[in-house]
Amino acid sequence: MDIKNTTKGFTNFFSGSSTFGKYFPQTLTVFFIIFIFGYFAYNAQVNMDNRGIDFGLRFLGEEASFDIQFSLIEYSGASTYARAYLVGVLNTILVAAIGIFFATILGVVIGISRLSSNYLISKVAEWYIEIFRNIPLLLQLFFWYFAALRALPLPKEAINFFDTAYLSVKGLYIPKFIWTNFSVLFYSIIASIVAIIFVFKYARKQQEATGKQIPKFFISLGIFTIVPLLTFLIGGVSLSFEYPILTQLSKTIFNYIGGVAIIPELMALAAALSLYTATFIAECVRAGIMGVTKGQKEAAASIGLTPGQILRLVVMPQALRIIIPPTTNQYLNLTKNSSLAAAIAYPDLVLVFAGTAMMQTGRAIEIISITMLTYLSISIVISIFMNWYNTKMAIKEK
Amino acid sequence: MIKRLNFLGTPSRDKLNLFISIGVFLFVLGIADVILNSFFEINITSILPRLFNYFTPLIFGFIGLHYIRIEFSGNRILDNLNKNINSNWFNAVLSLLIIFVLIQNIPPLLNWLFFDANFVGETKEECTGSGACWIFIKTWFPRFIYGLYPNAEIWRINLTFLMLIALVISGFFVPPKIKKYIIIFLLFIFPFIAINLISGGNFGLEWVETTAWGGLSLTFIISIFALLFCFPIGMFLALGRRSLAPVIRYSSIGFIEFWRGVPLITVLFMASVMMPMFLPDGTYMDKLVRVIIAITLFEAAYMAEVIRGGLQALPRGQYDAGKSLGMGYWRMHLLVILPQALKLVIPGIANTFLALVKDTPLILVVGLLELVGMIDMAKSNPDWLGFATEGYIFAGIVFWIICYSMSRYSQSLERKYKTDR
Q1: Which of B392, B398, B402 is the mutation pick for testing A, counting most A CBs within 10 A?
Q2: What is the value of pTM for the model shown?
C-alpha cells in the first residue's frame, strides 16, 4: 500500500489528491523558491562586496543634482532622489491619465463607427483599427516624435490658435489659469457634486415610489453651473490668464515664455498611446455592443421606449458589462506602455529613476526593484478600482 | 430646414429622372469644387461670402444627396448607394466629409510616396525630387535586415531562415506521419542548428559576436526563441495555477501576476543591469541571452493565462473521463486535457506571438538594434540626416505586413476551430 501511495504521489505531482502527493511537491516548490532567491541574494551580496557598494535605500535622501525638463511639482537639482522619483511617478501618471482619457473617447467613437450602417464610415474605422493596431507602439511613438512633430514650424512662425495658444516645434504653449481664492470655487464644485448625488438618490426614490421621472439631468446641470457661477460672482473668485509671449532668447533663438508649456515629448507620447490603445478599446466596444442580443432592443422598442432611451437604458448597461473587463486590461496596458517614454526622453519614472538616477548612483537592484514595484502597485490600484466598478455594474440578482 | 428643400416635391419615383439629374449634378459640383479648390487653386464660388464659400461643397453635396435619396427607386445602383452611404441626412454629411478628406489627402500622399519620390541613385544628393527619398532605404536595406552582420557571412542568416520557411511549408503538405517528425525536428533540433549557423565558431564558420546581430533578422531570432522557451514554462504555470496544492497555486499566481504587472521596458533594464549582479562573480552571460531570458519569462506569464483559458474551457466531463480510466495526473493531462485545451487556444497563442513581435523593438533601450533600432541609427548618420519619416514608414510597412498577415491567420484559425465545437 505504501509503495503504491508513493508512486501515485509522483504521478499526482500537482493534483494533491494523496497525502504524499499533497505535501511532497509543495515542499519541493518551497525549497526551490528559497534556493533560487538565496542563490541570487548570495551572488548579489558577493558582487556588491567586491564592488564596494552596500544595499540600502539611504541614497534616496541624497541630493540628486540633475535637472528634469518637465515636472508637475517643485523640483531643482538640489532636490533629493526621493523627490526625483516622485516627479517621475507624477509624470507617468499624468501621461497615463491623458492617454486613457483620449483613448477612451476615440475608442468609443471608432468602435461605434465600426458598427455604422454607413459603408464609408465603417470602412474608415476598420482601416484605422487595422493600421494602428498592427504597427509596434515604439515605431508609432518615434514617428510622431521624430517625423511628425519635428515637421512643425519654428516658434517664430508658430501655428497660432486665436492668439492664445501656439503650436511649434518647441511644443504647445497654452495660457495659464491664474486663480485668486481658488479654494472657494473648489469647495463650491464639491458641494454641487454632493447636491447632485442627493438629487439622483431622490429622483430614484421618487421613481420607485410614484413612477414619475424627474428631469434629473437638467437639474444637475443647473446645479453644476449655477453654484460655481454664484461663488465666482459673490465669493471673490477671479480668473486671469497668463498668455505665452514670443521672446527673443538670443540672436536667432526665439521661444515662448509664460503660460503652460506642453513639451513635444508629452504630446508625442500622448498621441501614440491614445491612437494605439484606442484601436483595442474600439474592438472591446464593438464586441460589447454586438453582444447585446437583438431581442433586447426589440423588447425595449415594443414597450415604447425611444431610440435614445433604448441605447441609454437597455443596450448600454448590458454592453458595459461586456466592455469593462477587457477595457480595464487596455488601461493597464496603456499605463505600462507609457514607460516607452524613456525612448524619446520624456521624463517619466523609467527615464528619471531607472535611467538617470541609476546611472548616477549605480544602485541597480534597489532602483529597478522600486521601479517595478511602483508599476505593480499602479496596476493593482487600477485593477482594484475597475473591479469595484465592474461589481457595481454587474447584474444585481434579487 | 430639410423640408424646405422639397419645393420640387418630395424625392420620389414619379419624377425619378429629374431628381437624379439634379442630385447627381449638385453632388458632382460639390466634389468638383473641392478638387478645383485643393489642386488647381480655382475657386468657382468666390462670389459668395467667405464663410459661406468654405462650406459650399458640403452644401451642394448635401442637397444633391438629399435629392437622390429615393426609397425603392428600382435602380439597383442607386438603392445600394442610398443604403450604404446615404440612409439619412446625418449619414450623408458624414459620408461627404469622409469623401472630401480623402480627396484632399490621398493625392498628395501618393505624390509624396510614389510620383515625386526618388528611386534611382546612390547618395543623398541624388534625392532631388520633392517626394520621399527611397534611396535611403535602398542603401541601408542590408543593414535594416541583417544589422551589422558581416556582409560576407550574410548567406548564413539567409540559409537559416530559408530552412525554417521550407520546413514550415513542407509541414503543411506532407502526410501526418512525416509531419510529426518535422515538428519534432523543428522544435528540438533546428534551434541548435540555427544558433550554430548564425553565431558560428565551429564547423569552420567564422564567429560573429551577438553585438553584430541586428535588423529584422534579430526581431525574428528573439521572437522565435522566446516563443519556443515560453511555451513549456507557460504550460507549467497554467497547470500550477489550477493546482489544488495551495503553495504551488499561489506561487504560480504570484509569478504570473508579477510579470503581467510590470512593463517590458523595466524587465529589459532588469536583464541588462540587474541580472549580472545576481550571477556568480566572474560569470559572463551574453546580453542577447539575458534579454531572451527576460522576454521569455515575461511572455511565459501571458502564455500561461492563454493556456489557462483553454484549460478552463474544457468541460469537467473530460477530467472525470480521464480519471475514471484510472489515469494519473500527468497521463490525464498529456493525453486528454492538454491536446484539447491547446487546440482551443491556438488563436490566443498566435495573438501572444503577435504581441511579442510588436514588443521586440523595445530592446533598443538596452542597446540591441533590431529594425527600428537600425533605422534610429541610420537616421542619425551624418551622411543621411533628415530621412526619419522614410525610415519609419518603411519599418511601419514591414511590421504591418508581418502583423496583419499573422492576425489574419489567427482569425482564420479561430474560425476553423470554432466549427468543430
Answers
A1: B392
A2: 0.85
